[in-house]
């Protein structure tokens, strides 16, 4: 994936847009988006254990008038004429893999100065699945509008305020060393501080930030976990948490590549005492 400027700048610039101009993508932008989605070299650290993922550009005029009223995004998304719709084959890490790839696409769209917004729940999954001819072995976890965003409406500002969209948990709540009782201090992890900060500011369903990262004591080994809440408010987001982990891993991975920080992704649960209530996902093992 090629970007026109540093990925860290793009991650910092990315924000969710729910209001669009109503104008379809212009020819050059459409061609660039289609070329991006047809990139068959899109891979993630979860690729080894995931099935094929694919993405298509779908335009509202492709739906007949009766279908347009049932897309399920209006009221939540306004004025969007084009959507990126993705499907992934069912597998152990299907949603994590999808989350990584979709976020990479969204960052590329941000680089193109196009607006986007992760949508995991407020859309007619059946209609969009039919439009891209998703089969029984595939799931469509999320979509995003893509286009020319306009000034946020009062309604959008209220939605963002309710979702606390501009607020993020602190380092002390997300990153730890050795165990869950020893928060990482930002000035103690050297070059990895930028990678963790890019994870911290990432988007997530309901802005829950379900990722937790535990660093091995005195080593550049970072174990990625997902929270596993038991109460009803957080259970509603359970199917979105794997997508969020994919987003977190994409921010860490893309930033590491840009800063030439060497390492490998591995799947080795460290069985850290006290982390039994978390769901282990993946580990980054740094070379230095």
Outline:
By secondary structure, the protein is α+β, with helices and mostly antiparallel strands. It has ten helices and ten strands.
How would the blueprint of this fold be written?
Elements: H1 7-13, H2 27-37, E1 53-59, H3 65-68, E2 82-89, H4 94-111, E3 115-116, H5 125-131, E4 138-139, E5 143-147, H6 154-162, H7 171-174, E6 175-177, H8 192-200, E7 211-215, E8 221-226, H9 232-235, H10 241-258, E9 263-266, E10 279-286
Parallel strand pairs: 6-7
Antiparallel strand pairs: 1-2, 2-4, 2-5, 3-5, 7-8, 8-10, 9-10
Helix pairs in contact: 1-4, 4-10, 8-10
Question: What does this molecule look like?
Answer:
The chain is α+β, with helices and mostly antiparallel strands. It has 2 domains: 152 residues, NADH Oxidase, CATH 3.40.109; 116 residues, NADH Oxidase, CATH 3.40.109. It is 32% helix and 17% strand. The protein is built from 10 helices and 10 strands. Strands 1, 2, 3, 4 and 5 form a 5-stranded antiparallel beta sheet that branches. Strands 6-7-8-10-9 form a 5-stranded mixed beta sheet. Strand 6, helix 8 and strand 7 form a beta-alpha-beta unit. Helix 4 packs across helix 10. The longest helix has 18 residues. The protein is globular. The mean pLDDT is 90.
